Amino acid sequence: MIKDLSVDHLLGIKQLSAEDIEIIFETADSFKKIINRPIKKVPTLRDVTIANLFFENSTRTRLSFELAEKRLSADVVNFSASSSSVSKGETLIDTVNNILSMKVDMVVMRHPNPGAHIFLQKHIDAKIINAGDGTHEHPTQALLDSYSIRERLGEVKGKKVVIVGDIKHSRVAISNIYALQKQGAEVMVCGPTTLIPKYIASMGVKVEHNLKKALEWCDVANMLRIQLERQEIKYFPSIREYTLQYGLTKEILDSLDKEIVVMHPGPINRGVEISSDVADSDQAIILDQVENGVAIRMAVIYLLASKIDKKS
Ligand code: CP
């Protein structure tokens, strides 16, 4: 029997309960077994059509969703803003409604505007999954991150997780904070003052500006990319200076009296926020995160698809 999520769409982690997250993880456990079998496909969503609408660049998320949909046997259509009629002045609602009139049941959307999914959900009937909205949320990334911590450390509850880097421009950081706290983890953010928004302390996270102290505190370090494409002004003197202060190197890891788990949502800037030897080390679970992303996205799609009313 399919356990019911409390939500009809995945707009953000904020709207999920701890029980929803557990249901998604239990479902992902089953799908992870399936995608590691010689026959990786199940016929579960043969009658479901999903549109992947990417108004912003993506490598991992887009491929991961498409693979998850195909592993579930859904029909898939892909849309990229750069090759669409959006550039001819079509509105978001018109674009999506035109796609939905082709009998699409579910929309996976990445959009540069924070809250675009919440707006869209009020205007269309299809199920919506947020694949990243501006600097707001990236819920499936946070789910796969927590799932990967659970896989490596046994559970998320009670673990200490530091998120390092460009918190100000990061939807990954916000979704991770919600997800980790809902599961009973302690969260710290670490980075230069200019890249840590003032409101973050009101989310109940610790703030630390010294990387070594943050690493001494944590069980897991999630290293974020500097999002230069979202920065209109200079937040630090130079990339070289940022790397000297906040780049994770083998030397710093070896100076700790414990072994921590290293994560990165990708894309990695090797030699900036993380050195190559750390990214490729056994302490890093970066490729496990990518693998788990497919199982997590299969679980989310499957659970939301079970709520589609095929009669209407
Ligand atoms: N982690 C992540 O969202 O990567 P992409 O931008 O490549 O999808």
What is the percent of helical residues?
25-40%
**How can the largest sheet be summarized?**
5 strands, parallel
Give the overall pLDDT as a whole number: 94
Tally of domains: 2
The CATH H-level homologous superfamily of the largest domain: Aspartate/ornithine carbamoyltransferase
CATH topology of the largest domain: Rossmann fold
**Class derived from helix and strand content:** alpha/beta
Radius of gyration: 19 Å
Order of helices and strands: HEHEHEHEHEHEEHEHHEHH
Strand order of the largest sheet: 7-6-5-8-9
- DSSP E strands, number: 9
Oligomer: single chain
CATH architecture of the largest domain: 3-Layer(aba) Sandwich
N/C terminus separation: 23 Å
| Strand percent estimate | 5-15%
Shape: globular
Give your account of this protein's structure:
- The chain is built from eleven helices and nine strands.
- The chain has 312 residues and is an alpha/beta fold.
- The chain has helices at 18-35, 60-71, 92-100, 116-121, 139-153, 171-182, 211-217, 239-246, 250-255, 276-279, 286-305, and strands at 49-54, 75-80, 106-111, 127-133, 160-164, 186-190, 206-208, 220-223, 261-263.
- It starts with 17 loop residues before the first helix and ends in a 7-residue tail after the last helix.
- It has a five-stranded parallel sheet with strand order 7-6-5-8-9, sandwiched between helices.
- The protein has two domains: 13-137 and 291-305, Rossmann fold (3-Layer(aba) Sandwich), CATH 3.40.50.1370; 139-289, Aspartate/ornithine carbamoyltransferase (Rossmann fold, 3-Layer(aba) Sandwich), CATH 3.40.50.
- Helix 2 packs across helix 11 (286-305) and helix 5 crosses helix 11 (286-305).
